[in-house]
Specification:
CATH architecture of the largest domain: Sandwich
Largest sheet: 6 strands, antiparallel
Number of strands: 26
Number of domains: 3
Strand content: 35-45%
Oligomer: single chain
CATH topology of the largest domain: Immunoglobulin-like
Shape: elongated
Structural class: mainly beta
Radius of gyration: 32 Å
Helix content: under 10%
């Protein structure tokens, strides 16, 4: 908090220790036997919000070698700012000035960031037509949730005022998923200034990506300087499965598990881990004993369900269709993947189906409470 009148904030801000010097070049000095960096606050530029108002953010370039300072006006109480940073007196100090006779105050936050690089050079890709499209083949697949760093810039002057492009990812260069928009507001990754290279970290979507595409959204000039990526350490996915069996007794006749009667098997899968699964990666294979005949019909006969399988879930974020996500095998050994099954059971009871395979679609969610899903099917005891 700061009192009214003319003042410098050197002794009042809670930031790393610094001294103010009269040059624009950052230096170091020894203070009380410690080597400290001398910071230089000059020539601020508004990068967001309205000047001299709460919510505004200013950038001081190169307050130290390779370091910029972002200073936000958090609040102004009982007054207004006459100057955000005075240019007289201790000109290298950060010197806001309140314009009020009575008691007033202002709060600021200073963040230090890596200095921005100069505008893109002649080797940068320039896009300046609404139909422009740039596709990059990264040469290898990026895993989901890895971070791709985009280096881009809007052109200076009127040519780049409204420049924006859409960012899309693909695993096959055929089907693309939109990750957001970079450029002039409103954008997912807003550009704060023109003629300055800006870096944004973009999360690779579920299913990963090998291709990244940029589609311009208007005729203003915008540059793409390059991309780089790195993998991140992901929390683990932990799936737990449990199988239960109950007598199929829709009329509550008190049936028992004896030959000739039907049972219902239910397999429940729970994600107890801290991360979601990869898309479409959940694959369940259930081995049926020889004493059991799979029922390929309406699981509850005249009830509300249709098809041989009932799928339910709680927060799992999956989809299931028996037409595409249910398969069978009559082999003696289990199929190694969902594509390996190659058997279609006839309608009704089938003693030949030895394995039932489930492959619900989507990425199974993680969270609290633990997400889960269940698949149920019916069979007859021989």
């Amino acid at each position: 908090m700061f009192n009214r009148g003319l003042f410098a904030l050197v002794a009042l801000l809670t930031v790393a220790p610094f001294l103010i010097v009269g040059t624009a070049q950052a230096q170091t000095t020894v203070c009380q036997s410690r080597l400290i960096t001398l910071l230089d606050f000059r020539n601020p530029v508004v990068v967001s919000g309205s000047a001299l108002s709460a919510g505004a953010v200013y950038r001081f370039s190169n307050v130290a070698a390779g370091i910029d300072a972002l200073v936000s006006i958090d609040s102004i109480t009982n007054g207004s700012l006459n100057f955000f940073n005075r240019v007289t007196g201790l000109i290298a100090n950060f010197q806001p000035e309140l314009n009020n006779i009575g008691a007033s105050s202002a709060e600021f936050t200073i963040s230090f960031v890596i200095a921005r690089i100069s505008p893109p050079d002649a080797v940068s890709a320039k896009m300046n037509r609404g139909s422009d499209m740039l596709t990059l083949d990264l040469g290898a697949g990026l895993p989901q949730n890895s971070l791709l760093r985009l280096s881009a810039a809007r052109d200076g002057g009127g040519a780049g005022n409204n420049a924006r492009f859409e960012i899309l990812f693909s695993v096959d260069d055929v089907s693309y998923t939109t990750a957001g928009i970079y450029g002039a507001p409103v954008a997912t990754y807003p550009s704060a200034a023109q003629d300055i290279l800006e870096h944004n970290d973009i999360a690779v979507p579920v299913a990963g990506a090998r291709f990244i595409r940029f589609d311009t959204l208007n005729n203003d000039d915008i540059f793409i300087d390059g991309v780089e990526y790195s993998q991140v350490c992901l929390a683990t996915t932990t799936l737990a499965a449990a199988k239960t069996v109950s007598i199929h007794d829709p009329a509550s006749a008190g049936l028992f598990a004896v030959p000739g009667n039907d049972v219902r098997y239910t397999i429940t899968v729970t994600n107890t881990g801290a991360n979601s699964t990869d898309a479409d990666s959940v694959f369940i294979v259930d081995h049926l004993p020889t004493e059991i005949e799979f029922y390929n019909g309406d699981i509850d006969d005249a009830g509300p369900l249709t098809g041989p399988v009932e799928f339910t879930q709680s927060g799992a974020g999956l989809t299931f269709s028996a037409a595409t996500d249910l398969r069978f095998s009559n082999s003696a050994t289990a199929p190694v993947n969902f594509a390996a099954r190659a058997y279609t059971p006839p309608a009704g009871y089938d003693p030949s189906a030895r394995f039932v395979c489930f492959n619900p679609k989507g990425a199974m969610s993680a969270g609290s409470p633990d997400p889960s899903f269940s698949v149920s099917f019916r069979a007859r005891i021989q």
